[in-house]
Design brief:
- By secondary structure, the chain is mainly α.
- It has one domain (4-134).
- The protein has helices at 4-27, 47-73, 80-106, 115-134.
- Helix 1 (4-27) runs antiparallel to helix 2 and helix 3 (80-106) packs antiparallel against helix 4.
- The model has no long low-confidence stretch (mean pLDDT 93).
Length: 136
Amino acid sequence: MANLSAILIAFGWCGIVVGILMGGIMGMYAFKGPLPAPKGHENYTDLNRRMLRLAHIAFIMLPLISILYGMCIDELQISYLYKYYAVICMMVLSIGIPVLLIASCFYLPFKYLQVIPFSCGLFALIVMAIGRIAAL
């Protein structure tokens, strides 16, 4: 059996690195930076620019939640199979939401696919909540 907590914690730190790198790249054109803003990102309030800013934060916060989740998952007194799928779902959530936000900047209908990582995240959080309540 894999050490689910270690896998999810390592995954979370990698996601945070992606979020920080994304912020650094965006900073190259923000506030009249050294690079010109890409088309559709010139104005601070442009939808595409706001979506990228949201994806940047999601690439940091969702992996941070995954790290916290990973710190708690092994101690739950529930089936290993539920924990295994919950960890996979947390990974899908952490990658899916920001990637689909970015994809939506180029083709808006991608936003409708966000129900998939959202549902995965909801499943994972329900597993954690049930496991924590059962431990009371």
